[in-house]
Structures are given as C-alpha cells and as structure tokens.
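YM 10:42: Rieske (2Fe-2S) protein sequence, as discussed on the call
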Amino acid sequence: MSRLRLAHQSELDTTSALGIRLPDGREALLVKVHGRISAFVNRCPHQGVTLHAEPNVFLEAGGELIQCAMHGALFLPETGECVFGPCQGRHLEPVGVSVDAEGNIQLAGE
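YM 10:58: structure's back
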C-alpha cells in the first residue's frame, strides 16, 4: 500500500517549516528543527486561529520554537506543547508522519 506523500525532506532546510494541506482539507505544518521532522494541525489551541501570518513562517526568530503569529505563544517542535503564552501547558494537535528511504514525508499509517 502506498502512503500519501506530503512533501520531500529536501523542501525543509535544517531548521524550517512548511505549510501543507491534509487529505481531509485541514491546514497543517511540517517543522524540522535539529534534523527532526514533526507535523501539527495549523491551529492554535488558544483561539483556534492559524499559527502563521505569512506563508511558511511558523518559527520564532531563533528557529527553535513554533510561534503563533497572533499572540506570540511558543510551542516545542518535538511535542507541540505550549511553553509560553496564553495557552501554556496545552498542545498543538499532532499529525503522525514518517520519512521513507527516498526522503518523502508521508502520513503515518496511510
């Protein structure tokens, strides 16, 4: 069974993020920090707004944390946990992904 390809890991720099659309129509983001790729639904748990104000800009200036453009909440890229801001302690909704031998980022379990 082939898995649904979301992107190729070459589309992500060493530290970057990329907006994508899931098969169910929801917006999501792929994030690569310290070589680890994670994915989350593009919705802040504080007010349900999308995290970005500009295309593919999801990380704070230091490139270490995911940031909500609306109110500055900061999230760990490994777990999606909010570590600063009005939704501290809450989490972004994770999207399971895997990377195949060719570097394709795919939905896990598809």
